[in-house]
Amino acid sequence: MARILMKWLILLTIYLTLSPVLSTKDLKTKKTYIIQMDRAVMPKLFSNHREWYSSTVKSVISRTEKEDVIDEEDKIIYYYDTAFHGVAAQLTEDEAQRLEKGHGVVSVFSETVYRLHTTRSPMFLGLEPADSTSDWSEKLAHNDVIVGVLDTGIWPESPSFNDTGMTRVPTHWRGDCETGRAFSKHHCNRKIVGARVFYHGYEAASGKINEQEEYKSPRDQDGHGTHTAATVAGSPVHGANLLGYAYGTARGMAPGARVAAYKVCWVGGCFSSDILSAVDQAVADGVNILSISLGGGVSSYYRDSLAIAAFGAMEMGVFVSCSAGNGGPDPITLTNVSPWITTVGASTMDRDFPASIKLGTGRTVTGVSLYRGRRNLLTTKQYPVVYMGSNSSSPEPSSLCLEATLDPKAVAGKIVICDRGISPRVQKGQVVKDAGGVGMILANTAANGDELVADAHLLPAIATSITALTLHRTVTNVGSPQSKYHVAVSSFKGASVKVEPGTLQFTNKNQKLSYKITFTTKSRQSTPEFGGLMWTDGTHKSSNYGYNNNINKTLNVYDTMRLGKKLPKEMRLPNDRR
């Protein structure tokens, strides 16, 4: 017993000895902090703000570290003095905590890593009449507008950045065209008026950029920045199409505007110290608009460095537009929601890429696809269809067509049904193809509902939606023990509603009986359509209301007990005067 006790005492002593060492090591680990300063309270003994900022950072460096650091400038990554005021510096946690108490320091917060979040859009949004024959850019007075795009850079050879017919660069522009690997001065023109790179924050956190694998220049290797820049201000490109689909003229929403590309994103992400420096520089360069399709976590406005910088840009007359992100539909998933930022979300539009498959029963199933490969199935031949899942209510690896889950003997020469989810949609087709399948039916599950995405698949494939949804609900008898409730259904356009059973016979008060509702969608609606059902025994009423939403194309059902409450007119059932 004494030996066991001694063993635990030794372990406890070792733990207590190591714990301070570990915490001390954490306090000495350097990382990037952004320090916001109140420039109005600079002491008079300093000749400029940079000198003051530098002195403030130097004041928290320990004596031991000062002996190792020749120049405190090595700790400062960026100075900000236009839209944001302060510095980005490499500090330990202890130094950052002490710096917060310094004179003129508004706040100190650690680096945030941000992530990256068509030919008919202008007409769809009502920005151009369908019968327009003149160049859209001639109709809008935006030729001298410069849009600063903070993203992954730009691919200057894209025809979206052709400057034919554009006037000289406006005189208010003070920016530069930085050079680097595969990017020279001649890549800038009257459309791409400027290009810069920001990477010091990224390298401080992730190490030097591998210039053999990544362009340490404004050139876009990812494609996201080129896409967003062209969406904002791309020049008209006639005859644009994707594999023959969506043929037309592709252009940005403001094709007469100019682009200034600020590359802030790299393979490992987009760091807030680099983004802040880009915003600061863009405002100083003379941009009129900032377009930022990046997002970090949700935080308070006064702790969000991008929100603070955007406010500063707004004060200087620069319009700031940011993306809402792709994290929905769960609560608290929107980003960049400060009231001085125009937050842009996503939407469906009125264009489809239909594809169909005819079953042996003669029924034709319609879905969407962008497959235009050479390997087509014969219309004169019937192909077996196989589904590798079981009757389980939850998807299985084989039903999802995950890698190495399909038996070649079972799928060779057949069309395989794959449930949507987990793995990328196009990758499922590759799995089917590798296993010897000749085609794929990508079936939505209940989680995806009627939402369809047309993909350029690797083999003949079609994506289909779920058209029916069954729900089980209960009704509680609040009337006399012997009560009979009948159902009245008010259907809405685009869907049918079936209730089973249609009558509920109660034998006790407060007794609960179940029923089943099956919703079957028929067609899309241009506006939300409301409908519902009501159970009544002639005196008491219990109602469920729902709507068919044309945005996410799923069926939403609200379960509410409506007893004597006034309802919106569009949600009332026939003869319901509530």
TrEMBL record:
Organism of provenance: Dillenia turbinata
Peptidase S8/S53 domain: residues covered: 143-405
Ranges for domain Subtilisin-like protease fibronectin type-III: 466-541
Keyword terms: Hydrolase, Protease, Serine protease, Signal
CDD domains assigned: PA_subtilisin_like, Peptidases_S8_3
Secretion signal span: 1-23
This protein's name: PA domain
Annotated family: Belongs to the peptidase S8 family.
GO MF terms held by the record: serine-type endopeptidase activity
Residues covered by region (Disordered): 211-232
GO BP: any one term: proteolysis
Annotated Inhibitor I9 domain residues: 32-117
Taxonomy, superkingdom: Eukaryota
InterPro entries: Peptidase_S8/S53_dom, Peptidase_S8/S53_dom_sf, Peptidase_S8_subtilisin-rel, Peptidases_S8_3, S8pro/Inhibitor_I9, S8pro/Inhibitor_I9_sf, SBT, Subtilisin-like_FN3
Positions with biased composition (Basic and acidic residues): 211-225
